[in-house]
Amino acid sequence: MKIAGVDVGERPLILAPMEDVTNPPFRKFCKRYGADWLYSEFVSADALVRSVNKSLKKLTIDETERPVTIQIYGRFIDSMVEASKIVEEAQPDFIDINFGCPVKRVAQKGAGAGMLKDVPLMVEMTRQIVNAVKIPVTAKTRLGWDCENIIIEDIAERLQDVGIQALAIHGRTRSQMYTGEADWEPIARVKNNPRIKIPILGNGDITSPQKAKEAFDKYGVDGVMIGRATIGKPWIFRQIKHYFETGELLPDLSVAEQIDIIKEQIQLSVEWIDEIRGLLHMRRHMASMFKGLPHFRDLRIRMLQAPDLRTLWQVFDEIREKYGESTIED
Predict the structure, then answer these.
(1) What is the pLDDT of residues 118-148, one digit of tens each?
(2) Strand, helix or coil for residue 6
């Protein structure tokens, strides 16, 4: 499938944007294990305009990542337009507008999913960004603000009409945050709307190869975004693709294999930031690993509290010695 001339693969599996997760080191691993299309962390438009170093660093991309999207968010049209021009200079394949972040510090200020309360502003912001840059613009949003206001079909038509090249839809409302189950039926209605000509990407609760296949086969989306299920498990993309090709489920990686991967991720994270912050950043990934191993509580606590690489490597050596080539299913 091509979007504005950019090949994103057939039935693409897409790494969803996640703050403090989808940085360049993590994207590298997702690409290695089969992700077809990568999204950056979301980047504050106001911070880009103010040249905040931390935000500017989020614009770093590598040629091996392509196709790659940089996502921005903000509440004011002027700063979003200016930020989109700054992002364009980093030469991503796409610029994505975040209309879906539900967290209070973003949505309650009118940005992210807060835009679902002001659709005319959302549409006008999108129109001006599309007109301001030469690279393709996409958007990501939710079904509506709450269950009484499921407005995604109207939003999809209006955003398409002002020029977005693809729309990603998370199957929850802002009020749901990340609770309950994602509802894919409204996503399917958007996809089946004869007025919709752009690709529709589905997001929400894709945690297994079977669910990814259902998203394509039952709901008809053009691409599937995977978010939280990749944390601590970037190889989920390979497992899904294997299932698509063979109908068989790959066994999970052995404990030893997982240790090798997480150690490399940690090392890259440390190189990307520094040792203290790099380890703190990776705790979220480590916390998602090794669930189901018997008698693992004490090792898990030590792993997550390790103050430096030397201590953490020692803990990993103990885990490897105790659990060896076993898998979680064992």
Answers:
(1) 999 999 999 999 999 999 999 999 999 999 9
(2) strand
Q: Where are the beta strands (DSSP E) in the chain?
A: 2-3, 6-7, 13-15, 37-44, 68-73, 94-99, 137-142, 167-170, 200-203, 223-226
Interatomic CA distance for residues 25 and 194, integer angstroms: 40
State how far the Cα of 166 lies from the Cα of 249, in Å rounded to an integer.
Answer: 30
Q: Is residue 2 a contact partner of residue 8, using CB atoms and an 8 Å limit?
A: yes
**Residue written as token pair 């007025």:** 195
Contact assessment for residue 164 and residue 139, using Cβ atoms and an 8 Å cutoff: yes
Nearest in space to 95 (alpha carbons), one of 170, 229, 23, 4: 4
Q: ω into residue 67 within 30 of 0, thus cis?
A: yes
Q: Cβ of 193: how many Cβ atoms within 10 Å?
A: 14
Residue type, 23: N
Largest interatomic CA distance in the chain: 59
**What is the per-residue DSSP string for 211-238?**
HHHHHHHTT--SEEEE-GGGTT-TTHHH
List, by residue number, the catalytic residues: 101
For 264-280, letters b (16+ CB in 10 Å) and e give ebbebbbebbeeeebbe
Binned at pLDDT 50, 70 and 90, residue 330 comes out as very low
Helices (H), 136-254: 152-161, 185-192, 209-217, 236-246
Query: Which DSSP symbol is given to 197?
Result: -
Residue 181 has pLDDT above 50, yes or no: yes
* Mean pLDDT computed over 204-218: 98
State the Rg of the chain over Cα.
20
Please write the tens of the pLDDT for every residue from 27-57: 999 999 999 999 999 999 999 999 999 999 9
**Which are the contacts of 150, defined by CB distance < 8 A and separation ≥ 6?**
143, 144, 173, 186
